[in-house]
Inverse folding.
């Protein structure tokens, strides 16, 4: 097993554990991550997920290159099936997960590792973390969704600079362009991720899911269509206990 789950209260920490390979994502690890998310989605007591890497050197160095090379050697159809479909499937699963996924970036996040960070709802990075899109040096564009998500998140020119040069950027630069939410000392990384998770899980789970769905579904739509998505998710919450409790708490609060 290369993926471990540790649950503390309402937060589950999922750790990629291939330290000898800088937590590179081979096919078995990608499949294990998908299975872990399937399990956590149906675990009602888990309200948020932290995704990190084992050790201090790497969050994930990206796709396992020997496996990827073998797939490409097997022809285009095999490469699309084993690399693109599997990699995009993982990042889409993370992006569309109904509970917030927080990437705790404990080292380098290159290639597919960076694409996982892009797909996560939120991200916190250790000060020594670095980010890169080195796929161009291998002769192909990012295959796990990074050519689409990164420019949408950080802007076309910033995204293209990373994608076209392959050069790494430090954590502070990643924070400045909006790839991560915060940068903290390495020793504080998981505590910071847990604090962020707690600030979210204090709210009703139905509201959290509705916010995630509305943003992720609407962000790439024209504004009128996005507003319709927002209205639909608002409507979906109006009969929930979260709305009843939240309104009652507000209306019954002590007045100054």
């Amino acid at each position: 097993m290369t993926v471990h789950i540790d649950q503390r209260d309402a937060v589950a920490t999922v750790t990629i554990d291939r330290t000898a390979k800088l937590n590179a994502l081979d096919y078995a690890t990608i499949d294990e991550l998908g299975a872990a998310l399937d399990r956590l989605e149906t675990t009602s007591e888990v309200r948020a997920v932290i995704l990190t890497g084992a050790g201090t050197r790497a969050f994930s160095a990206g796709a396992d290159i020997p496996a990827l090379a073998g797939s490409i050697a097997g022809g285009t159809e095999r490469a699309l099936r084993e690399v693109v479909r599997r990699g995009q499937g993982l990042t889409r699963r993370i992006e569309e997960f109904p509970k917030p996924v927080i990437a705790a970036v404990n080292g380098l996040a290159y290639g597919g590792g960076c694409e996982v960070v892009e797909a996560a709802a939120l991200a916190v990075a250790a000060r020594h973390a670095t980010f890169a899109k080195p796929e161009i040096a291998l002769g192909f564009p990012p295959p796990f969704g990074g050519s689409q998500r990164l420019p949408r998140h950080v802007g076309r020119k910033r995204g293209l600079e990373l994608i076209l040069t392959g050069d790494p950027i430090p954590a502070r630069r990643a924070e400045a362009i909006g790839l991560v939410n915060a940068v903290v000392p390495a020793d504080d990384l998981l505590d910071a991720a847990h604090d962020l998770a707690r600030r979210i899980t204090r709210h009703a789970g139905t509201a959290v899911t509705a916010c995630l769905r509305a943003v992720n579904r609407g962000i790439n739509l024209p504004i009128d269509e996005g507003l319709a998505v927002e209205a639909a998710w608002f409507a979906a919450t109006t009969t929930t206990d979260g709305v009843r409790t939240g309104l009652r708490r507000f209306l019954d609060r002590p007045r100054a």
